[in-house]
Amino acid sequence: MDFAAVLSAIASDLDRHELRWAVVGGIALAGLGMPRTTIDLDIVTDAGAQEHVVALLDSLGFDTVHRSAGYSNHLHRQPAVGRVDVVYVRGDTAEELFAAVQHVAGPGGLEMPVPAAEHLAAMKVLAMKNDPRRELQELADIRFLLSRPDVDRERVREYFRRHGLLRQLEDVERNL
Prior knowledge:
Elements: H1 3-16, E1 21-24, H2 25-31, E2 40-46, H3 50-59, E3 62-67, E4 71-76, E5 83-89, H4 91-99, E6 102-105, E7 111-114, H5 117-130, H6 135-146, H7 153-162, H8 166-174
Parallel strand pairs: 2-5
Antiparallel strand pairs: 1-2, 3-4, 4-5, 6-7
């Protein structure tokens, strides 16, 4: 996947329409200093932008393979271009997430907005809860996020507690 080209096309449009967005997932982690293999571009935006984002991705040659109120997944008609997954947030979650966005260097040197470490961790906790097979990778990512000096560890703990996954957090903390 040409992450820089896809990110540039998406960023240009969302910025031009003054829509809030940020990069999440593997590309966000790489921007924060944890490079790892990823096969898709993950972004988060306001739930109210869903129609616009789906239309944008369609215009860029992506087919929507799944769509719900909280997520959409898009696969390009040319396999080499890849996949884009979108998380849609609303209300207090959106306000908190976008208020704490930081800008880091992304693919091809592009500047990209990335949520705060604790917000990325919250998304990892939800991914783990929704699909326990993802636990090992998500916990590795969370371990990296917890090692950052700017992370609010108590907030991360609350996300784990809220979703009944405190044991997993305690395992990670023992190995920090």
